[in-house]
Design brief:
Elements: E1 13-15, E2 23-29, E3 33-38, E4 43-46, E5 56-60, E6 65-70, E7 78-82, E8 85-89, E9 96-99, E10 109-116, E11 122-128, E12 136-141, E13 147-154, E14 157-162, E15 168-173, E16 178-183, E17 195-199, E18 204-210, E19 216-221, E20 225-229, E21 235-240, E22 246-252, E23 255-260, E24 275-279
Antiparallel strand pairs: 1-24, 2-3, 3-4, 4-5, 6-7, 7-8, 8-9, 10-11, 11-12, 12-13, 14-15, 15-16, 16-17, 18-19, 19-20, 20-21, 22-23, 23-24
């Protein structure tokens, strides 16, 4: 039995010498292992299997890079929440934009966190550079490449994170200290009425990951903690880190990875911006892929349609 405020079983270890400005979007993928981004630097990075080695750069973009998801059946290709929209990143080629919904916004905007869901869609949040209240949105890219703005009025969207069956989505509005839960129609991607899952009073909920028991690990910015919440919203355990701004989390089987950030700190400590690992009791699963040639909305056995 676990208890609130209990430490992770084996504590936390520092992964490599890197210190990122704004490390987020960390994912465990089948083809590339652990990948993550340094958002404001526009860098896509991967970790080697040797914990003492530095991160290796996969791509460098001339605009912010919020998060990526692998594209199915296209090795080395990523769908990315980047700049003012969503694009495809392929080796040795410029980004190919699927949509730039924030390019003509009234205030400077950028994409933030994002992920694929088990049905093969890609979801990504946008926010104002100044974190203006209610300026952000959540966008969905369907398997035919169509981008839809599905939620408005968010300040700083983080996540989303999905349960393994794809029927539940968690989305943080970090600036407001709340994580909401939505039902999802796997066939259409339509969202149900939101309910408050967790409210954080002492920090900002940031990146999230759902484990095999349906519990949600949440990086809580400003507190130096990552917290595991049970499906009913009860706090189960807390991992404490020597970094003030935990930002992203993922599970590689029973190893929890956590990114952190130095941005905004007047005097960063030696571990601010580091990536951490900790052993946990309940495993996770690899990141879902964006499937542009996947089954259409009529069901998994319907004819496949091409992205054009």
């Amino acid at each position: 039995m676990t208890h609130p405020e209990a430490a992770a079983p084996a504590g936390a270890d520092v992964l490599g010498p890197d210190r990122l400005e704004l490390g987020e979007g960390i994912r465990w993928t089948h083809d590339h292992g652990i990948v993550l981004v340094d958002i404001l630097a526009g860098r896509l990075l991967t970790a080697t299997d040797r914990p003492a080695e530095p991160l290796r750069q996969l791509a460098q973009l001339p605009f912010p890079l919020g998060a990526v998801a692998p594209v199915a059946d296209a090795p080395g290709t990523w769908i990315a929440a980047a700049g003012t929209g969503i694009c495809l990143l392929t080796p040795d080629a410029p980004p190919r934009w699927l949509a730039q919904p924030e390019a003509d916004a009234a205030r400077p905007m950028r994409m933030n966190d994002g992920t694929a869901d088990p049905s093969g869609r890609f979801w990504a949040g946008s926010m104002a550079y100044g974190a203006d209240d209610g300026a952000g949105s959540l966008h969905r890219v369907d398997q035919d490449g169509t981008a839809v703005r599905v939620l408005d009025g968010i300040t700083v969207p983080n996540g989303p994170a999905f349960t393994a069956d794809g029927r539940t989505m968690y989305l943080a509005d970090s600036a407001r200290g709340v994580v909401r839960r939505y039902s999802v129609d796997p066939l259409t991607g339509d969202l149900g009425t939101p309910e408050t899952y967790v409210t954080v009073d002492d920090g900002s909920p940031d990146g999230m990951a759902v484990d095999a028991e349906g519990a949600v690990w949440i990086a809580v910015w400003g507190t130096g903690t990552v917290r595991r919440y049970l499906p009913d919203g009860r706090l189960d355990r807390t991992l404490r880190l020597p970094a003030r701004q935990p930002a992203g989390v993922c599970l590689r089987e029973d190893l929890l990875y956590v990114t952190s950030a130095r941005v905004g700190l007047a005097a960063p400590g030696p571990y601010d911006g580091a990536v951490f690992t900790a052993r946990v009791d309940v495993p996770g699963r690899p990141a879902d892929t964006y499937r542009p040639h996947g089954p259409d909305r009529h069901g998994p056995d319907s004819p496949r349609k091409e992205l054009r």
